[in-house]
Design goal:
Length: about 425
């Protein structure tokens, strides 16, 4: 087996060996983050939460999450992915189950804040971890395969969450309490598995041959060296350079739409007077199409080598679809509009993460990826909060959906401007 064959064999083995498990972990992660949207179908009425209270509680998660993102990713680089990711998963699983103890506004805010602190660093940590195993030209496809967990979490979690709400009264607990308890426990179990399953880097992977380990490690080392010459490797560079900050602003717009609809879609559908179980199944439909689009779009981006339009076009689709869904439509057309919006938002994320990982390496990658994710997740805080405030002020979701459309349109424009600046930079061949 020559060097190139060994490298490709190692990449295929890594994809088969790591991605299904990481995808499962992220499915549980995302479900525990957004299942409050399903719990709200009953919890809000039980506890007397207004739309603005729920929106603030859904969004305050990101305050704790953002605050601890960068320290968590630096800790992962220091202690290794296996130990640190296991620590994150076990702690967030315990807090996610403890959400069953919510009994008033203060406890709702406190536990959502703690959940954000516990989860901090998981997603950017996995993105960083994937750079240890896969070269840049493979990353849109690889990240898309990993992030397909997001729509799949709702495809599976929607009906499951709806069914768990039907357990109302069992052993004296509310249905939404059972939802939190049962959906939080898998994270704890998977966190324990991580301690025995995950290898930190290719050099320690016994399931690769010696030749495969050497070939893959050599390629990734050469790529990291090249990235240091054109990108950013230090902590200071990663946290201050305009290109990184612009990518953070772009991800803010993406996350604004992602979480804005993720938290509120069940309640948008609830306006048609459906049962929780039916809402769960209907919510799964947009995410099923989104999962397929995410994988195909990321693979197409890697195949063509094009990144910018693969980010801008899905955002434009999502913006138009949100604007359409804001019109007064029957249930069928509302579901078509929400499906197109969900497809657009999710198709963009795999290709997006190929942009920051192409200009960051070393400590710069640990800090910069966390910074971009932190800035983006400010949109995760703002999106649910603003949607809730607009919903309460207007009595409908229409204006809120228009607002989400505007945020995604802005994201598309930022992506195009970033691409134009990258082309100008390449032409000038001069560092910023």
């Amino acid at each position: 087996m020559d060097h190139d064959q060994a490298r490709q064999s190692a990449i295929r083995k890594a994809a088969r060996g790591l991605l299904p498990f990481l995808c499962l972990c992220y499915m549980v992660n995302f479900l525990d983050r957004v299942n409050v949207g399903f719990a709200a179908l009953a919890m809000n009425e039980d506890l007397g939460f207004s739309p603005s209270v729920f929106g603030a509680g859904a969004g305050i998660f990101f305050a704790g999450y953002i605050l601890f993102e960068i320290p968590s990713n630096l800790a992962l680089q220091k202690f290794g992915a296996r130990i640190w990711i296991a620590r994150i998963m076990i702690s967030w699983g315990l807090v996610a189950s403890a959400m069953a103890l919510v009994h008033n506004e203060a406890s709702f805010y406190a536990l959502r804040l703690l959940l954000g602190i516990a989860e901090a660093g998981f997603f950017p940590g996995i993105i960083l971890y994937l750079t240890y195993w896969f070269p840049a030209r493979e990353r849109a496809r690889i990240v898309s395969l990993f992030m397909v967990a997001v729509p799949l979490a709702t495809v599976i979690g929607g009906p499951v969450s709806g069914a768990l709400l039907e357990l109302h009264g069992l052993w004296g607990l509310k249905g939404w309490q059972w939802l939190f308890i049962i959906e939080g426990l898998p994270a704890v179990l998977l966190g324990v598995v991580v301690l025995f399953f995950l290898d930190d880097r290719p050099e320690g992977a016994r399931w690769l041959t010696k030749t495969e380990r050497q070939a893959l490690s050599a390629m990734l080392a050469a790529e990291a060296k090249a990235t240091r010459e054109v990108g950013y490797a230090s902590l200071g560079q990663a946290l201050t350079r305009p290109r990184v900050l612009v990518l953070g602003l772009l991800y803010f717009c993406i996350a604004f739409g992602l979480y804005g609809i993720g938290f509120w879609m069940p309640q948008v559908i609830q306006t048609f007077g459906l049962t929780p179980l039916k809402i769960g199944f209907l919510t799964a439909i947009p995410y099923l199409f989104a999962a397929l689009a995410m994988v195909l779009w990321g693979a197409n981006s890697d195949r063509t080598g094009e990144r910018i339009w693969h980010v801008a076009l899905p955002l434009l689709l999502a913006a138009l679809a949100f604007a359409w869904s804001a019109m007064t439509l029957p249930l069928g057309l509302t579901m078509v509009a929400l499906t197109l919006a969900t497809v657009g938002i999710h198709a963009v994320v795999g290709t997006f993460w190929s942009l920051p990982t192409a200009i960051l390496t070393g400590t710069g990658a640990a800090a910069g990826i966390a910074l971009v994710n932190s800035m983006g997740n400010l949109g995760g805080f703002a999106g649910p909060f603003i949607v809730g405030a607009i919903r309460q002020a207007t009595g409908s979701f229409n204006a809120a959906l228009w607002f989400l459309a505007g945020a995604l349109l802005l994201g598309a424009l930022i992506a195009l401007l970033f691409g134009q600046a990258q082309r100008a930079r390449a032409t000038a061949s001069s560092p910023v």
